[in-house]
Sequence to fold (101 residues):
Amino acid sequence: MSKFIVVAKAEEILPGQCHTVEVEGKQITVFNVDGNYYALDDNCIHRGGPLGQGNLEENTITCPWHAWKFDVKTGTCLTNPMAKVASYQTKLEGTNVLISF
Ligand code: FES
Fold:
């Protein structure tokens, strides 16, 4: 059963930025797109590159290793439509950002 876990303070992830956290041994990156938060597995589905170290433009993150692009809202890969990274529901409670895990 999933539960919501606090992963960051809202002020730690400003619009256009992302923040990678470890949740129960898993690396997850939380993105802020225009004040909305989205969370994806940090490991790129291609060869495991760290998506949180990639370049975020609007709602697209580009993997720093081989430049595959992903929609941070859904985890869908824009480079290879057959691929997708896991995404997690998010919510804001007061000043805390939470993800469903
Ligand atoms: S590891 Fe991300 S594009 Fe290759």
